[in-house]
Design brief:
By secondary structure, the protein is mainly α. The chain has 3 helices and no strands. This is CobW/HypB/UreG nucleotide-binding domain-containing protein.
Length: about 80
């Protein structure tokens, strides 16, 4: 199962999804949580927190492409991914 979650900044998606993963783990179900924003900042440590949308569109597209390739690779190995 693959679940994609989108939403506005600040609606606390991350902590909610962490709780979903914990709930699943308590029932012996492994769920891999991929946070696109966190992965983008990890891939580009020179970008200050909260400034990812201030970079050039070319670099932003390149970062997104790289992160989604990583997530797709994880999805092939994980039975459940958010």
């Amino acid at each position: 199962m693959i679940v994609v979650v989108t939403g506005m900044v600040g609606v606390d998606k991350k902590s909610y999804l962490q709780k979903v993963c914990q709930f699943a783990a308590e029932r012996d179900k492994k769920v891999v949580l991929c946070n696109v924003g966190e992965q983008m900042y990890a891939e580009a440590p020179d970008i200050a927190p909260g400034k990812i949308l201030d970079i050039s569109m070319k670099r932003l597209s390149s970062l997104r492409r790289s992160i989604f390739k990583d997530i797709i690779a994880k999805a092939r190995k994980a039975p459940n991914l958010i």
